[in-house]
Amino acid sequence: MRSIPLLLIGAALASCTTAPPQPMRTAQGQQEYETLLAGKVAGNPISCLPTYRSNDMIRIDEQTIAFRDGSSRVYVAHMRGACANLTSGNYALVTKSFGSGGLCSGDIARVVDTTNNITVGSCAFGDFVPYTRPRA
């Protein structure tokens, strides 16, 4: 008899979980995202992106950051939580590396107003998904 209340509680808790909201992308952001991934195939997610691959960052929307690695590879990170104000005004994403030599899933980034040097938001990186153009 005790198992029925436990099942009801479990069902109630499961019904409270929701999928993360889809990123709100502008038409320009969606076009840039599609252009970056055109002709490329997704690979297995990786948890860390070496520093030498993280120099060419592209802000797609407040939850999606892409890193271009030449013309044939792009790494896409979906942030854990939105980086508020990231695509607005004179804001930049500022990260710090601690010993790993790169960006890793779970690393926290700050959104900084570059005019006033004030932090206006923060978020954490998710895994990095490589998209690579297949060789002909």
Task: Walk me through the structure.
This protein has 136 residues and is α+β, with helices and mostly antiparallel strands. The protein has one domain. It has 2 helices and 10 strands; from the N terminus they run H-H-E-E-E-E-E-E-E-E-E-E. The protein has helices at 3-16, 27-37, and strands at residues 41-42, 48-50, 57-61, 64-69, 73-78, 91-94, 102-104, 108-113, 118-124, 128-132. A 5-stranded antiparallel beta sheet has the order 1-10-5-4-3, covered by helices on one side. Strands 6-8-9 form a 3-stranded antiparallel beta sheet, with no helix packed on it. The model is unreliable at 5-21 (pLDDT under 50).
Uncertain runs = 5-21
Q: Provide the number of structural domains.
A: 1
Order the strands across the largest sheet as they lie in space.
1-10-5-4-3
| Rg (C-alpha, Å) | 18 Å
Order of helices and strands: HHEEEEEEEEEE
- What's the helix count? 2
The N- to C-terminal Cα distance equals 63 Å
Provide the helix percentage. Answer: 10-25%
Task: Give the structural class.
Answer: alpha+beta
- Integer average pLDDT: 79
Shape assignment: globular
Largest beta-sheet details: 5 strands, antiparallel
* Strand percentage: 25-35%
